Amino acid sequence: xxxxxxxxxxxxxxxxxxxxxxxxxxxxxxxxxxxxxxxxxxxxxxxxxxxxxxxxxxxxxxxxxxxxxxxxxxxxxxxxxxxxxxxxxxxxxxxxxxxxxxxxxxxxxxxxxxxxxxxxxxxxxxxxxxxxxxxxxxxxxxxxxxxxxxxxxxxxxxxxxxxxxxxxxxxxxxxxxxxxxxxxxxxxxxxxx
Length: 193
Known about the structure:
Elements: E1 6-9, E2 12-15, H1 20-30, H2 37-49, H3 60-71, H4 92-103, H5 114-122, H6 134-143, H7 152-165, H8 176-190
Antiparallel strand pairs: 1-2
């Protein structure tokens, strides 16, 4: 599917900020507990569709619906109870290194739309044999059941690595609103709660 450039609501057309960085910024907005739910909605709308979208409150509901569809790359999101194994913001260094190693793309110096970024992200090398990019090595580490390691010293080392790379280190400090927003964003992007 091709990345849309515009969103149409009624007789108005809004240019979409298609660069992948805008979509990632939406995750940051969704989990920012220093602002209320309505302000988060406005933040997502403004980030994706520009400040002129804020001039038409009657379009907010439809724009949020279009934002959700855009952030899921137009795909139906299947809900799952699995915990996310990646965070765009926390893992950006790993994402950048993986794009460089797999595709020879320097994300810091390139423009790329959200759909292409998502497709490339999903196509990063991944193998349970260890032949994969650093991001997927860490994702595999986060998902692996350490109880399967029989040697207690090796299991302990592995569990320490899991703890070091865990995403939920800061989750204990999330407010209920942040948790709710993060779950909604993860449901949209990953199909996970």
